[in-house]
Amino acid sequence: MFHETKGVSAAVHALANAGRKAMWAMLNKCGALDISSFELELHLFDSLVSPILCYCSEVWAPSLLFTKRRHSTTTPQQQQQQHEPQQQQQCSSVQHRNGNPFSPVQQDVFQYVSDALSNELQSVQFMFLRLIAGKLRKSTSRHLLLREFGCHPLIRKWFVSMLSFWNRVAADYTEDRIALSSGGLLRCVMRENWELSQQTVSTHHSSLWCTQFKAFLAVMQQSFYVQHIPSPDIQLKQQYVSTALVAVQHFQQVNIPQLIQCFDTWFSQKWFGVHVNPRLAPSCSVTWSTYDRWFAAAPFTDLWKSHPSKSRSNVVCDAAGLHTSVVGSLLRFRLAAHDLHVCVGRWHLRDRTLRVCNRCSSQHVEDEFHMIFECPLYTDLRQRYHPLFANFGGWRDCSLVAQPSSDHMRSFMQQPTALVAAFVHACWLRRCGQETNISVLVDDSDDFFSVASDEWFDCDDSVSHTPMSDLLAPMGCPNLGA
Length: 482
Prior knowledge:
Blueprint: E1 2-3, E2 7-8, H1 12-32, H2 38-48, H3 50-53, H4 57-65, H5 76-89, H6 92-98, H7 104-116, H8 120-132, H9 142-149, H10 154-170, H11 184-198, H12 209-223, H13 231-249, H14 256-268, H15 286-295, H16 300-303, H17 314-318, H18 324-334, H19 341-347, H20 368-374, H21 379-384, H22 394-401, H23 408-413, H24 417-432, H25 468-472
Antiparallel strand pairs: 1-2
Helix pairs in contact: 1-2, 1-8, 4-10, 4-12, 10-14, 12-13, 13-14, 18-24
């Protein structure tokens, strides 16, 4: 929408409603055609729903990504000085209890990213991901969802459209060429918008397209003071954004590939420097550390320069043919959308050391690692699914061999999805006391049934060589795939 004094604003509610209708129509069609492939559903969303949510984003994206509340004309060094008195007032015990290793400037940057993901249009994408993952709760981390499914956020597409729009307007422009030829009127309007933005800031100038565009670039430039990003990359990204700001200042084209790299670093910066051991990670980043070190295909530092589809989990790639309840249990487990005490205790502000497992007497924190390798409640399930533990000392000694600070949990999750999902689902049902209510876990069409059974048996002679279909069935459910 255009206004004579309030600038340009997005018809967010109308576009979001149209996007939701298209999403539900697509999901209904997928259900009618029995489409269970996550990759196909993601492709359909990008083809059918994303264009609606990105319609004309080059015009309204700056106003949506930028607000006066977020914008600051101070430099990062000045912001740090402003926060220093507040830091000195806090005693060390409070800082230790909060467990936050990030500076106030970094927290401001993280909050900006969170705000950018909170608009109604972007929420449609997250609702879609939660629905196909098994109707996860709204509190599921949005960054974890994007990384699990290997997706770019919609705001990245909006940013690319902004850059392309600016370069089209700035192309071949000269002072004496304002004729109403192809694109001439648009260039004339944008030139006047740019000239107004160059003047002294007034009440209405913050609503100018060029002002908001430059402000968003400035926010990205400030974000590269994050300590955990490798210093050569910080200097390079600062140079990229500085060059772009100078180009915008002179109404010149910008380097789109360089700025896309800057955006990806800006958006993903909280993944840098996560603790190698989730059990020792500070509270503010324990969820990120848990996913990066235990569930991701590889650490973020090995993947952050590649396309996000490279980080797509094997669950998303191999889930076709598996029962939806089984896949949902595994995804809840991976995305911290479960009710283990390590998560439930966070809701009640309980100290992490007090979130112990009440299903055993070990006094260990009930986290994902404890459920897989340590808790004696699931010992007989480990015996039943013994092929999963062959590389971790066997089902009897896995609690002694597997270590939370190593790649053991990641390696466990990289095993065939059907078997891992069946084990995790059986553990959930054991924990909830609903084992006898299972009817179907995996369809007979799943490719895992073609795997030679000899590949999945360890050398423990005390364990009988059970048929693969029985391994995938929960205890008390012999009619697998019926």
